[in-house]
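The freezer alarm interrupted the setup, so I double-checked each line after restarting. Inputs confirmed:
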Amino acid sequence: MYSRQFLEELYRTVYTIRVFETECIKLYRQGLIIGYFHPYLGEEAIATGVCAALRKDDYIVSTHRGHGHCIARGGELKKMVAEVLGREAGYCRGRGGSMHIADLKTGNIGANGIVGAGIPIGVGAGLGIYVRGGDQVVAIFFSDGACNNGVFAESLNLAAIWDLPVVFVLENNQYAVSSPIEEMSRIPDLHRRAEGYGVAAYAVDGNDVLAVYEKTTEAIEACRSGKGPVMVEAKTYRHGGHHVNDPGLYMPEERLEYYKARDPVKLAREHLAAQGQCSECDITTIEQQVLEAMEQAVEYAKDCPAPSVEEFLKEVEQN
Amino acid sequence: MSEDKGRPGASGVRQLKYREALNEALREELRRDESVFVIGGGIGQRGGSYKVTVGLLDEFGPRRIIDAPIAEASFTGAGVGAAITGMRPVVEILFVDFTSLIIDQIVNQAAKYRFMSGGKGRVPMVLRTQGGSGNGLAAQHSQSLEAWYYHVPGLKVVMPSTAHDAKGLLKSAIRDDDPVIFIEHKLLYMTEGPVPQDEYTVELGVGDIKRGGSDVTIVAWSNMVPRVLSAAEKLAARRIEAEVIDPRTLVPLDKQLILESVKRTEHLVIVQEAVRRGGVASDIASIVQAEAFDYLDAPIEIVAGKNTPIPFNVQLEKACVPQEADIIEAVQRVLHL
Ligand SMILES: Cc1ncc(C[n+]2csc(CCOP(=O)(O)OP(=O)(O)O)c2C)c(N)n1
Ligand SMILES: [Mg+2]
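Predicted 3D structure, all chains:
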């Protein structure tokens, strides 16, 4: 049994990610956000469950679909919104954008625009821990598409032969853009590949935040005690297309309905109500608080100045 | 099937988008030659991120229009291997930024195979990719990396600026017996231009005078060409006539066309979107100063991208890439105005 407080925290995080993405999509439609924007809608339980199992001094490595990871690690909404709006007050001073948010304060090594590129970087953070000593761990987030890139295989092997404290968190949302995993891999249960490298692997329902939390906790314990890397494959499904401008028409209706019925926000809410004995009224209060925090973040960010071009050009002179 | 300028008004000329012209080139070559096939990420059903391969899967089937996983190094290597053994693959890498992942197959394998085999082997492969900034896609999706490939002996480098050139050059690239790096520009896909109805090709290594003029020569390629042409119109209003030369292919480079123009105008401005340091513009400048020094009336001006990763914020993004005003200023400087 989990405490009400813990379940509240999980729900707050899951819901915050949902609200962040939903509100940012509105800003995108208003033309205030430009460029690529990959929503984490439908996958909220994975970042939330994994990060709840991590310690403050641990690391995570994120992806192009990285807002959820950043929030679950305790990232600041204000700085995130300011960044996606391209403002000086943003995480990357308006220079990085949605795909490049990093937050070293929360151990978030960063999102990445190159699919798979974060995997060896996470292994490197693990290697640093191994060389330094200590019992930190690294959670590396990546999706099914990245598993078909060479860096996945090489990284898995490196982490395995050096017993690195790395949890490979495979967010299998079953698509790489529009390519279904069944067409890109003979074995769509991708965690089965781990065995070939001598890496322990679990599959878990990626839409259930408690299931993710429990499996990741086990994995992290193994890592911390020096047993080497673990893979957790969390199966899930995007609630829409690959990015905001992709209607995702190739996603079969029934499949999408199935996963929407198992909506991670809904499941986390049910856990909070049932196990946490939280009343509908109290849950609504949490939701209100989250909505207000997001509203404030958007207002704050909209008022923030854009980066100064002159200052930027001065910095560039040094390059 | 000779070169046709496709100027408006010529018979059998339509207006096509750059991406449609590329699509036609692929379609015609796939029909003409059974050994041509296309491989890349999301190019089949989805028709490519920029819609260049739309409809090809329906016409040519999954054996020749191949959707690959995100395994760039290996599917490019597969292209090299297929090319060596008699096929003519067109490999698509979504962003030139991602070609960093395939550089061994391009630089150590494809570029050198012919040479290392004592001239017996051939790699008739085209690498289609897309670069440039201007859409707020930030540091890993906005680069101009032609200098990397320009630098490597054994590769040809093509960078079309118009729908007409895109089609004719892609057809030539596919028929070429050596590896060709074909770099499109994300801001050009939706631009329209005249394209002849009849089949034609554009020879690799032949530049094009996009606008005649006698006061100054401006060399530019890819998306800098429309920008330079627009600057040239503004200059014309001030009675400065710029000659705009688009080499179209950086390797081989039509240096004769550039030299002849410089000898007439005695002033040269080179405009590139890529960062200044180690760029193709510097190399063209060195060629011109070595071969036409006595004709130059002023030091060569280079207008180039700033030495920085491309920022996300649009205003900053603009500030690092040559704009019309920068081009006009450079022309004024070179003419001592
Ligand atoms: C090396 C590389 N190849 C291609 C792309 C273009 N791209 C961006 S996201 C994406 C799909 C990634 O799929 P997956 O790893 O499953 O992540 P998901 O989008 O499902 O979270 C692709 C192909 C890229 N960014 N980097
Ligand atoms: Mg995926």
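Quick read of the result. Chain B has two domains: 13-196, 208-334.
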